[in-house]
Amino acid sequence: MPDGLVLAIDQGTSSTKCLLAAADGQVVASGSAPVPIRYPRPGWVEQDAIEILDSVLAAAAACLEGIDRSAVVAVGFSTQRESALIWDRHTGAPLGPVLGWQDQRAVGVCDKLRGDEARIRAISGLPLDPMFSAAKLRWLLDGTPGALVGTIDSWLLYALTGSHQIEVGNASRTQLLDVRSQNWSPELLGLFGIPSTALPEITPSQGELGRIGERGGVLAGLPITAVLGDSHAALYAHGSEADDGVKVTYGTGSSVMRLGAPASGDVCLTVAWNDRLAAEGNIRSSGATVAWLASFLSLSPEQIGQMAATAESDGVFLVPGFGGLAAPWWDDTAVGLISGLTLGTRPPQLARAAVESIAHQVADVVDAMGGASRVLADGGASGNDVLMRIQADLLGVPVKRARTSSLSALGAASLAGGLTPAVTYDEFVPSGDATASRSAWRDAVRRALSSKESR
């Protein structure tokens, strides 16, 4: 890759962020644009495909304002995963909403396949769950024959280059990929009823993935040379630190990922990038829990964080089973609950319990992975020092928080341009025994799980 600037576009759940990186990995410009989220019914989470595309173009325009376009040599994408959409193969017009990764409307599709659950997991590396794209795609295709389907990365690649393709790491999150051969599985396509003609072509994470056409506005003419799922991109950005650490991206939900095969069946086998495999556990509600509590109490998320910093939970536990619980429980019928309430419970105790719920869920997944010698933290919520200290205490290992923001975008820039940015860290070390707290949390989770899943 010749010297020049690399544009990274990080298309996330609530916003699109862009950064422009120089050959030495330094960020020279940035831009962002919000993306609306809609909740039309309980358990339904929707976005609009055109609004997502528009946010990409707006964030890129803001990032490139005043920049000599000729200095930009490549574009890399990191994208939200598992979200699914459908569009007309002739006009390219979306034929319905984007079903967000948190969306639960395809539970019925999964329920019909419970007898094939073990086989689905053996091939895809993923437990049967409506979070993954396959069940959503089946729901979208009902009554819409002949359409094209895909995930956010494939939609953006189609809209910007005209080519129907999907990056292999994103493909591994659809539950339709044979994760070991990295091809669409005819058996899984048959089980979910997905025609192969509707699916995009699988491409590697890095290479000549297309040149952006006129629809790309300020991006027109630029080559796309890397695409990654957002969590995968963050892992890539940690570089050699990721070789023996567990990476946690704290966002709307959380992704806990380490390179190599899973230590247990409670976490997923996924493709990190190209032919590199990883173990991953997904948490549905992390920052979303704080946002929910803030809305419920008519406060801001920042106020929740401030209250949590000066309070103890006093035995209150908040289990955020808003749409079921993902790893390591994988119970889509789990319920949300708050336990330990007393007449003395006030908003500060709830705020602390909401923040602690994030750290407890991460600890559950790390335990299922066989433990860790250290945690590498990134994502918006990792900026909360209280959360980082709680996380270190609950796991009993150091937590190294990346000082660099937008690590997913930086990972995409690194792969797209062959950059090796230096990521620096703040370190939080454990300072107490969390045995009693972990035991009480597990009791609360057991109450939230459906009776068939309780353990």
CATH homology superfamily name of the largest domain = ATPase, nucleotide binding domain
> DSSP strand (E) fraction?
15-25%
The residue fraction in helices comes out at: 25-40%
CATH fold description of the largest domain: Nucleotidyltransferase, domain 5
Task: Characterise this structure.
This protein has a seven-stranded mixed beta sheet with strand order 16-17-15-14-20-21-22. Strands 3-2-1-5-13 form a five-stranded mixed beta sheet, with helices on both faces. Strands 4-7 form a two-stranded antiparallel ribbon. It has helices at 49-64, 107-111, 117-124, 133-141, 152-161, 168-171, 186-192, 230-237, 287-296, 301-309, 347-368, 385-395, 407-417, 435-448, and strands at 5-11, 15-21, 27-34, 46-47, 72-79, 85-87, 98-99, 148-150, 165-167, 177-178, 183-184, 201-203, 224-229, 246-250, 254-259, 268-273, 276-283, 317-319, 337-339, 375-378, 399-402, 425-428. The mean pLDDT is 91. The chain is 32% helix and 22% strand. It is an alpha/beta fold and 455 residues long. The longest helix is centred in the C-terminal third of the chain and has 22 residues, at 347-368. The protein folds into two domains: 5-229, ATPase, nucleotide binding domain (Nucleotidyltransferase, domain 5); 239-448, ATPase, nucleotide binding domain (Nucleotidyltransferase, domain 5, 2-Layer Sandwich), CATH 3.30.420. The relative contact order is 0.13.
